[in-house]
Amino acid sequence: MEQLILDYLTQNWSADHVAKLNFSPVPKGQSGDLAVNFFALTKELGKSPIEIGKEVAEILQDCPLLEKAEQSGPYLNLFFSIEKFFEQALSTQLESDLLENKTIVVEYSGPNTNKPLHLGHMRNHALGISVSNLLESAGGNIKRVNIINDKGLALAKTMLAYDRFQNGETPESADKKPDQFVGDCYVQYETEYKKNPELEKELPEIMRLWEAQDPKWYGLWRTMTDWVLEGVEQTYTRQGVWFDKAYKESDMYEEGKAMAYDGLERGVFYKSEDGAILIDLEEEDLGQKAVLRADGTAIYLTNDLATDRKRYEDYKYDLMIHVVADEQAYYFKTLFISLEKLGVLTREHFHHLSYGLVNLPDGRMKSREGTVVDADNLMDELSGIAKAEISTRNPELPEAEQHKIAEQIMNGAWKFFLLRTSPNKTITFDAKKSIDFQGATGPYLQYAGVRIKSIFEKEGIDMTDYMSQTSNYKLSAFTDSEKPLGVKILEWPKVLTRSAEGKNPTLIVTYLLELAQSWSSFYAENSVLGAETEELKQARLALAGKVYSILEKGLEILGIEIPERM
User: Fold this and answer.
1) The pLDDT value given to residue 371
2) Residue 538 belongs to domain with CATH number
3) Which residue in 54, 100, 294, 502 could disulfide with 275, CB within 3.0 to 4.6 Å?
């Protein structure tokens, strides 16, 4: 409706003036469907907001979209025509073409092959899933990619611990999930290191032998990496994580080293006194950054130079998004500038989607000390809570169906909780609060969807078929009672656009809560199936179906499913 009002004013007033109008909800205590303010025009026109509002109100007198426009202080409150209003509300598009013809690569997860996934990865996954889906819903051609961190000191530590202390044990013989078994080896190294710091001196030689593909260390690396990836894939499947392609550091480091030497030869990089290859970023106030170690072994930057170039060769992307914690902000600045100086792509082709850490109520997680929250264990805990609730509410359901619903609720709980706070903020994860069926949570939104579906089920109507036929309802049957819900529906396209532009799914989370609360308030006061007339019942069914479709789409963006029942 906003755009239609703007189009009408553009034709009947001034396009320059129209561009500076601001819409907002009607201030509390006032009536109307939408408010317009003119604060941005007062200086330009030399008039007060009230004077401008009166002028615009006269222009809008003949607008077929409105019943009236009423001045209230500095605001002009608009009252929409019932039929035009609900015609627009019920035809609100769920997706947009904002990013049409744009190819965007989103990298997220980035597991290390020395440990299982943990709560920190879950925030990364929540963002990676939702941002990918969000940009796709805005018309983008999205490629989801992973980077497997399968080389480096942490791997050397893990292999040393396994070789020295595990006596040939395997995940099968230890009866452990394979990635958790390897993670225990990593923690064991740190424990043994505290007893014997001399262990650290063995790591460079292990790394050198690995790069030389020494049969012992290269073979052990292959075995332990396969163990971890097997376990990680199980967790991915449970969380709804998938990728178009996974890139491995072990496949990219040689190409990265070649890029480092090429940059050195072309004067993009320089060699330090100890023989390391560096890039000078003093002009960007970033100091000097190593590209390759003095002993010729690769580091993260070496690998990522090659990986981002390879991804461009694979996908010819317009934008490459790295979803990584904000601790790496400096690193990604150096990576993007290095790629630009090498002539791969300009830094505008890259974006670091950073996010704050996830803490526990008693402090920060530390992998090496074994104080992380394992992703599998957390999901088991949440699923167990959900299962107990479902079995109480629906004891007649078969065990398999109860399990399926519990898993859907579990995923709704942690994803929503980790997305409800803006990505740039550090958060403290509270498992019990995340799965509260009554609070501002994922399960609350899932339950709102289930309740709407049940209305159609009681009436014996297929909601999808019903919504596809506009002849099922009459626009003239709607009343002012449905308007607040219609106003909230009409906000969806703007929320989707703003969220996609800012790559911020938290805006979707906030909107969905408001939509569900608006529906709950409406439904508490207005019966759908018990409406005063048959025409009003059919109209309210259409409105309920539209709320459901937006709720379903919004949750789909967040990677959350609406169960059949709860």
Assistant:
1) 57
2) 1.10.730.10
3) 294
511-515: average pLDDT? 98
What local confidence, expressed as pLDDT, does residue 365 receive? 46
Helix (H) / strand (E) element for 48: namely none
| 202 within 8 A of 193, measured Cβ to Cβ | no
The enclosing domain of 32 has a CATH number of 3.30.1360.70
Helices (H) and strands (E) in the chain, counts: 23, 14
Same domain, 57 and 196: no
Angle at which helix 153-165 crosses helix 178-195, to 10 degrees, equals 90
pLDDT average, residue stretch 49-65: 92
Q: Are residues 76 and 156 in the same domain?
A: no
166 in the same domain as 66: no
pLDDT, tens only, 306-344: 999 999 999 999 999 999 999 999 999 999 999 999 999
Q: What is the mean pLDDT of residues 172-176?
A: 96
Name the residue among 125, 13, 112 with its Cα closest to residue 411.
125
Tell me: do 517 and 416 sit in the same domain: yes
Same structural domain, 389 and 516:
yes
How far is 52 from 461, CA to CA, in rounded Å? 49
**Does 254 map to a domain?**
no
Helix or strand (DSSP H, E) at 22: strand 22-24
Contact yes or no for 111/247 (Cβ under 8 A): no
**Model confidence pLDDT, tens digit, residues 392-405:** 999 999 999 999 99
Range of the domain at 62: 2-80
Taking 70 as the threshold, does the pLDDT of residue 366 lie above it? no
Domain boundary among 211, 240, 269: 240
Say if 70 falls within a structural domain: yes
Q: Is residue 472's pLDDT more than 70?
A: yes
Same domain, 408 and 550: yes
Q: What gap in Å lies between CA 152 and CA 203, rounded to an integer?
A: 10
Region label for 71, one of left (φ > 0), alpha (ψ between -120 and 50) or beta (otherwise): beta
By three-state DSSP, how is residue 198 classified? helix
pLDDT at 1: 83
Residue 252 has pLDDT above 50, yes or no: yes
> Is residue 328, in this structure, part of any structural domain at all?
no
Residue 358, strand partner residues: 427
CA distance 448 to 516: 6
Three-state SS string across 445-487, please? Answer: HHHHHHHHHHHHHHHCCCHHHHHCCHHHCCHHHCCHHHHHHHH
Residues 6+ positions from 538 with CB-CB distance below 8 Å = 472, 473, 474, 477
In a domain, 457, yes or no: yes
Q: Which of 33, 56, 80 is the last residue of a domain?
A: 80
In the chain, the number of structural domains is 3
pLDDT over 80 at 482, yes or no: yes
154 half-sphere exposure, CB direction, 13 A CA radius: 18
Q: Same domain for 550 and 441?
A: yes
Average pLDDT value for the chain: 94
Tokens of 505: 């799914």
Same domain, 493 and 405: yes
What value does the CA radius of gyration of the chain take, rounded to a whole number of Å? 28
Stated length of the chain: 566
Task: Quote the CA–CA distance of 126 and 301 in Å, as a whole number.
Answer: 25
